[in-house]
Amino acid sequence: PIVLTGRLSLSEQQKALQYFMEYEHVSEFLYQSQAVMATYGNGLANGGLSIVAGGRGVEIVPVYDGQEIERSKLFSPFGGVIMQERLRVFLRDERDQPLNVSKTKND
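Request: output the structure for the sequence above.
Response:
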């Protein structure tokens, strides 16, 4: 059996199914979203909230009875790449100041 997760279009799912059935001789194939698998893997079989923070942003997906609730999904593009860039700028601007010295009104 194969369990495949990720973001694939319907045609990509069909190609994956065809490949595994024809070339790998897989008898069973399940394609499921990462949000559903994450809630199930954490023992929340009836539902839960999946939060994925990655380089491109943060995605919040509610899951109920093994299905994503599409109308309630949220996505924020404020992810790891933006955070990393802001940290780089902060460190570049603050490079001349020691990290353990706080600024006071007299400075």
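The radius of gyration is 22 Å.
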